[in-house]
Amino acid sequence: MRRLLPFPGLMLQFCLLLLLSQSALAQGTRPPGYTDNVEEQMAQMQARVRYGSFIESLETSTERRAEIDSAITAVFVERTTASRDRSAGRASAVDLEEIASAAYLREQLAAIMSAEELAEFDRYEATYQQRQLRNNFTLQLARVAGGLTEANREVVLEVLMQHMGAGQEQIQASNRDAVDESQRQLQALMNARTEIAARLDEAQLREAERFLGQILSGLLTTQSMNEAEQ
Question: What is the per-residue DSSP string for 5-48?
């Protein structure tokens, strides 16, 4: 199984959704779309974490957004059910892989979306990994390299995305590809570090190195784990 650096932004969104739901229940109210089915609740939260910003970005009516949101949630419920059935031996790995694929979700949405809405969905999907990677870098940078100026923070992010963001949408799921991807990311990080060093002064580079060192440590750990699974 391929392991990449975690995205704390996604985890934060998920935890916030969970806390909001628990708070609403404690007050005797129910959040929008609440259901007593725990699996469906989890599917709803997963769908909103993954596609909530896409739904909100649609320039359409509230009712239309709700319809598209419901269709996406239905697919996530299917995925949850298929995963449970797979664990119980009632479904094959092929069945689960099909339902979990991006192509399956797009096929379901194509049945209810207009051509313009589907084009927006495709654009959202095409840039999703890079957006999450940049969000992850932004959070890490603020946490470990607070001494960087705002301008130099943008320089570091720009260079990292230029080198490490390339090819994010083409990453495959096999372990062999995971090892190759880890090596590609390590080389990309070294290339990014060289360019960053040429653009920052010595004091600012020391700040950036704290951040780059954290990324390097994570990549080396990921590479070791992937190689061990070969």
Answer: ---HHHHHHHHHHHHHHHHHHHTT---TT--S-HHHHHHHHHHH
Residue 12 lies inside a defined structural domain of this protein: no
Q: Which two tokens stand for residue 103?
A: 């192509």
Distance CA 199, CA 188 (A): 17
Domain that holds residue 167: 128-229
Query: Do 141 and 199 sit in the same domain of this protein?
Result: yes
Contact between 80 and 43 under an 8 Å Cβ cutoff? The reply is yes
To the question of pTM greater than 0.70 for the whole model, the response is no
Final residue of a domain: which of 69, 89, 113? 113
What would the pLDDT profile of 93-144 be if each residue is shown by its tens digit?
A: 888 899 999 999 999 999 999 999 999 999 999 999 888 899 999 999 999 9
Taking CA atoms, 137 is separated from 6, 39, 190, in Å, by 10, 32, 16
Same structural domain for residues 66 and 147? no
Phi, psi of 105 (to 5 degrees): -60, -45
124/129 Cα distance (integer angstroms): 10
Q: Domain total for the chain? A: 2
3-state secondary structure of 41: helix
Give the count of alpha carbons within 13 A of 25, CB side only.
11
